[in-house]
Amino acid sequence: MKWLYNLFESSKPHFEKRGKLAFFKPLFEAIEFIFFYPPARTVTGPHVRDPLDIKRYMTIVIVALLPSICASIYFFGPRILLMILVSYAVGGLVEVLFACIRKTEIHEGFFVTGILFPLILPPATPLWVVAVGVFFGVFFGKEVFGGTGHNIFNPALVGRLFVTIAFPTILTTGWTAPGAWRGAADAVSQATPMALAKTQAVFTPVADLLIGIPSGSAGETFRLGIIIGGIFLMLTRVSNWRVPISYLASVFVMAFVIGLFGGIPSAGESAAPSGFAAAFNFGLFNLLGGSVLFGAMFMACDPVTSPFTVPGKFIFGIGCGVLTVLIRVFSGYVEGVMFSIVIMNAFTPLIDHIVLSMRYRGAEAS
Amino acid sequence: MKFNGGYNVMLEGEPSTGVAPYQKPEALHLPLYSDRLDFSLLEVEDGASVVKGQVLARDPVNFSVPLLAPMAGTINLKFAERHITIEHLSASSDSETAEVGDVGDERQTLLRLGVWSSLARLDTNRVPDPERTPEALIVSVFRFEPFLPSPAAILKDGAGDFVSGLDRLHKLFEDAAVYLVVPESDSELKGQLAQAASSNSWLNLFEVPQTYPFDHPAFAAQMLKLSPKRAWSLDVQGVIAANQALENNRPYTKRMVSVGGPQINQPCHHHLPIGYPLAMIIDRQSGAECRIVSGGVLTGGAVAPSQLGLDIECQGLTVLEELTGREILAFVQPGFTKQAYSKTFASVFKPLFKEKRTTALGGESRPCVFCGFCEQACPVGIIPHLIYRYLDKDRPEDAYRFKFDKCIDCGLCSYVCVSKINHLKLFRAERSRAVTELIEG
Ligand code: SF4
Ligand code: SF4
């Protein structure tokens, strides 16, 4: 590694104040600091600090996503890798440009956004759509708010929302059947379980959902992997269990209740299935079908865009869950995860404000 | 009682309870400053000879508390800046101590013999007014921050002196209640204290889990719902010194100091006079660049290289190696040797161990990402990142609205922060601003 270190040291002068490449200093530093940590010391107390830093914190999220990433490549082929590459390249460009213009450091949050975004797209999304979406998401979802830590909406979801609205036809035809790329599926494209349920009242079996037989967004099909990754994330304390668990629980309860009152879609003229067992199955299907798991484990729990107060986290999770099911059952859309999280993101500051003003109510009077 | 938050930093080099043999110094270098005190009023001249217990200087801001000569010798004011050096030390016996002035009341005795300056008001951490009387006195016996002196070293010869010191202080402070902060776990010393508490109704034990900073006197005051304005704290040595001052008229000029940390060869305790040359106690493992921290590594301050001797308030010295090297790809290393508040390092698969830490910041400074660790670690249940944000925007009213006044400056929020934000520094700045305002206003 000595040669690399020397390389950094010898190129450094070009990026200093009067160097030719001074504009790109943030980029140079970001790359240097990835390989060699800055020798930053504490100045005042606490003289020792916890070894966890933001780079590792974000890396843990990527590690938790690995099962989903690997499964998506297995199911949908190497083009997923290309999508990830494009997402990182274009999103990275926006991030780097902003950092250079603002003369600040490049923030690590982008490493997560860059991988999350392609994973929530239909697997056959054209690469240029990936590029446009990630550009929009990073630019309008994050940079205009002032960068990581200041954004209100989850940038990956902002990008996803944008492409859904801007290119509806491309997005709804991009549902490749898993394994189709290597001839392991009968058809090239396939409707998603949520669409099947809504339009034809066909409910994909739970076991199929878990191992990812039906189609869906690139990263959301292998649900066993999402569960493992999500639990890993909670165990490391990087994600707070309150949001995902309350989200998932409320989706199940909400769907169960709707199921009990005859809200389950039925085929043609036949009566809606009812009864306890049917409601239970409907709850389970809503929990596992679609992007609820992925959304709860990796999107909703983003600490920057969800409430920081403890009761707020529960309110947020429940709000996401209730909205998701309501959109699924009562709106024209087949999936409500994306909308519900973005809507709840918008309410995050308000939720925190209300929780805080209740908790510190007495304080104001005194 | 419910305890939330807290965290133990596992640092290598915990001082053993043994006391190192005393080595005679050539000279003593008494700093004219310490954490809370500033002895700006000199009472001796260059070249003068002094006897043990003689007043060398006073702090005019803090009720003229004195800096006393620990040994007889000749004064040298020119040896080092802001120090009084005593040379040609003579091994005077106790009988040769300074003239006892007019024997005032007991408070004056404590003031005169250098004990009073060990007291602290819990609200401002300042030396309390000798004219006033606290409602409660809190003594934290076992300290959990790495590293402060262990009561097992200080009370080697039993708790007798300590308990009678408490008794005297209780009477002196017009029947103030006395609280001893002790861990839940049992020990011989705790048994002795429990016995003393059962036979004295004014003496109470406050049991806490063995986790930093539940040993903090200000934390105990909060849990016990005592008014911080009227509660004072004192350390174990201060209590013993009070006993000896009131009983034998003995000046408080020697301290039990713990010396530890990853860089120290044989971490242990030392019983030393104030001004003892630091160079003689810091026995380092390597020639690496080091930082000497006075007090605990979370809340203590770095000892300036210009400081030559033990200052009057020093309790423990912890020596850390300064970070020099640069870690390669640290964020993807498994991390078997690193311990973290989160479970993000492979060390979670190993049993708890003491870690060799340096002064590494551990990452780059970033905006807050609301990871919530600071709130989880905070012992007093406030939201450090929220308070930080308001203080940073220069809106202290809002910080106080969110109960900033409960903060005990334990530093855990800054310790655990993923974004390497130093809350503690800002919190302390605000507090000293508020105290100054209070005094001037
Ligand atoms: S806010 Fe105060 S009491 Fe809470 S962790 Fe930080 S320093 Fe300690
Ligand atoms: S620990 Fe640091 S990054 Fe995390 S919430 Fe607190 S201030 Fe923000």
Task: Sum up the structure in keywords.
heterodimer; A: 366 residues; mainly alpha; Ammonium transporter fold; 2 domains; B: 441 residues; alpha+beta; Rossmann fold; 5-stranded mixed sheet; 11 helices; 17 strands; binds iron/sulfur cluster
Blueprint (SSEs and pairs):
The complex is a heterodimer of chains A (366) and B (441).
Chain A lengths: L1 H14 L9 H11 L18 H23 L2 H24 L6 H11 L7 H15 L13 H12 L1 H5 L20 H8 L5 H6 L11 H13 L6 H19 L15 H13 L3 H9 L9 H21 L6 H23 L1 H5 L1
Chain B lengths: L27 E4 L9 E2 L6 E2 L4 E5 L5 E4 L3 E5 L6 E8 L15 H7 L7 E2 L14 E5 L10 H4 L5 H13 L4 E7 L4 H12 L3 E6 L8 H7 L7 E3 L2 H13 L5 E7 L7 E6 L16 E5 L6 E2 L13 E6 L51 H5 L6 H9 L3 H6 L10 H5 L6 H18 L1
Parallel strand pairs in B: 9-10, 9-12, 10-11, 13-17
Antiparallel strand pairs in B: 1-7, 2-4, 3-6, 4-5, 6-7, 8-12, 13-14, 15-16, 15-17
Helix pairs in contact in B: 3-6, 8-11
Concise structural overview:
The complex is a heterodimer of chains A (366) and B (441). Chain A has 366 residues and is mainly alpha-helical. Chain A has 2 domains: 9-40, no CATH class; 55-183 and 197-355, Ammonium transporter fold, CATH 1.10.3430.
